[in-house]
Amino acid sequence: MGRVFVKACLPLFAILIAGASSCDPKLVSPKNGHLVVDNVLSPVLIQTSRLRGAGRLEGLRTSGTWGLLHFEPDGAFTFREPLPSDVWHCSDPGATEGCVARLRVAHDPGPIGPNPVFGTGIVHVCTENYVQRQGRRHCGLRSLETTGEPGGFSWEGDAWNRLVVGSHAFGHVDADSPPSGDAALESSGVFFDYRWDPEDEEAVIELGTPASGEWVAYSMDIGACSFFIPWEWEHRLEDASYTAGLGAALGNVGLAERFLDEMIDTTEPQSQTEVNAMLWVDAVVGIEPNTSASPEFHYRLSAETGAPQICFKQYFHASSDISTKPDHWYRFDQAIGAFFLEIFPFLGRCGSKNVSFRYCGTPVVEDGVGMFEVDPSSVQIAHQGYPWAKTICNNEFVPQFIDGVRATFEPGGEGATQIDAGVAVLVESLSEILGLDVRRIEMSPRGVYLITAESTGDPQYGLGDCRSELDRSPSTPGAARASDTGIEVGVRGLTRF
User: Fold this and answer.
1) pTM as predicted
2) Cα→Cα distances 151→10, 166, 299, Å
3) How much of the chain, in percent, has pLDDT values that exceed 90?
4) Which residues contact 488 (CB under 8 A, 6 or more apart)?
5) How far apart are CA 352 and CA 346, in angstroms?
6) Residue 162: how many CA atoms within 13 Å on its side-chain side?
7) pLDDT-derived band at 102, boundaries 50, 70, 90
8) Sequence-separated (6 or more) residues with CB below 8 Å from residue 28
9) CB 225 within 8 A of CB 464
10) What is the mean pLDDT of residues 448-473?
């Protein structure tokens, strides 16, 4: 039998080039991992092909255990029968409508049928009037689309989603020093954070046209378990069991506040003992923090991708004098300088002027290691410029300075490397505080979610802010439920003074 199987598959090698072999085991029906039926008495169609060994169909009983519904010793099978009553999970026990069943399809090697949300082999069956009030969307896909109207969005989510809609215009982005007077009081944007409503599974948001910029929307997935850390401590979840511990670890400040405090830190970098500039091969242009201006922290949704980003704008004084490299990972702000070998013609000729750097990106976790993906298109450098008579400074030094700064944000650049190192230390520290691995990071207008469990099958499920599912209950209540309250963003975002 094995030889016949191999021969039958030999002509299909060309199909492998296209992506998959038709000899692989397959869940034929349903193709999308879920079915919708009229009621619990309706027949359910589960069809498989090319199974290896015995085929099995199991159902999750209301007792929380799996039970065998169908067994086929010769492999592939077609199941077309009503499901037993004890696998239907209904909002009204004993009812025939408003119910959902969770099935598992498998053969000897294990489950079959891809289901990235619920796990391989999982199929959900819902009655047509089933209203989902907990857990992942069982029957149907989560989606976000524009309605074609200004500020109009159609959203289908679940209890583990948030819909974030906002507009951010970055006023005075080309200013080399902070705005003052009435300009400092302007608003740069507003954000709304909506939670999923089980009574209105397809939400339609119509916001019209914003005062400036345009509305951007993002469907945020906060996982099965997460820990919420606010940007500002005043937005903390006071009822969450873990908030006190995070406060003790972070010094009762929000994460963005912590970022800014570390940028403002005035610890002097290590001094260079060599005074001969010609021997200073790794010398950098003299960049000093503008101690009278706080750095800025901004949350925004990318106009290009819709994905959330955090942005920093920092103010400095820069000259053609030589300075040293910083000696602390969190002083990545000082590492974002212009590193170029052509510095020597300008030494001492271009005095200190105001400059500002703006850059945005996304912290991510890959294999447990944190890093920061800089958006190159977001990098903005503003330089005060020099008197018209200093042509070499305006025409040569400033352009090279700006190009050098931009280069530090490229992958592998000095600034990008320093930011990566900082986020790596941050993720490692937070993992140690929580005693859990951080699977993923999600950012909202109010703060950041550290995802510690992607599904109820994750071994870390039950710790943190968890949402209930069919087969088990959460250990802690869902404290991080968002509201639709608008968050207005000042022109300077979040600052420390």
Assistant:
1) 0.85
2) 54, 9, 19
3) 45
4) 187, 189, 190
5) 12
6) 27
7) very high
8) 47, 48, 49
9) yes
10) 84
